[in-house]
Amino acid sequence: METYTPGYGEAAAAFMARRRLDPNGAFFLPHLRPGISVLDCGCGPGTITRDIAQRIAPGRVVGLDFNVDQIAVAMRDAKAQGVANIEFRQGSAYALPFADSSFDAVFSHALLEHLQEPARAMAEFRRVLKPGGMLGVCTPDWGGFLLAPPSEKLLVAFEAYKALQNRNGGDVYCGHKLGMVLEAAGFEGIVMRSRYENYDPLTVIGDFLAVNHEEAGDRKNAATWREWGRRPNGMFSQAWVSCTGKKPTT
Q1: Beta 146-148 vs 235-246: how paired, if at all?
Q2: pLDDT in tens, 59-77
Q3: What are the E-state strand segments in the chain?
Q4: Whether pTM exceeds 0.85
């Protein structure tokens, strides 16, 4: 069984809460329209889920996450903001707690790279989609990152983080494989795209990665990330791959 590398602490929650439908899920905007039903799988604190709710109202979105604390935060914030067409459930991507053909669209951001069996989750996404329904998934691919300023220490820390996530059952090179995974699951009309996300200030990503190392007992590489994040003229340019596909109507 895999381990979610970022964890569910305050630092991870704050980092994930920065994400919004635009830009993080902009690739899926053309497939969101008023009145449809959407599943957001791996919703975390629900910031993207709330944006989807606004986009598809009066349609309904369900956010699902494995961690109950994340679900509690997402429910609290949605209630505080008065978002009525939204629901949150605890559950696993490997066994979605929904009937066949329940949703017009399924969306999943930054989840598949942490799964040991992404194909198994993909089969579940297909199962709960209605015939003709759209799937949109997005994940970083650590084979395309750009880091500056370069140093031997930074390269060591970079490779150490990739090894950590892979040891935890994930796949840091999941991004460029998405099309093959969708095709194997029986989706059609598959479209893959990539974009880069830049972090400003660098401490946002530097401290986030440092905490992940610290929780794994790796203080040396954690210190490298923290030090690098405070250097001037730096860049962390993260490669993201998105992939959309349609469930066949027959």
Answers
A1: antiparallel
A2: 999 999 999 999 999 999 9
A3: 38-41, 61-65, 86-90, 103-109, 129-140, 146-148, 188-198, 235-246
A4: yes
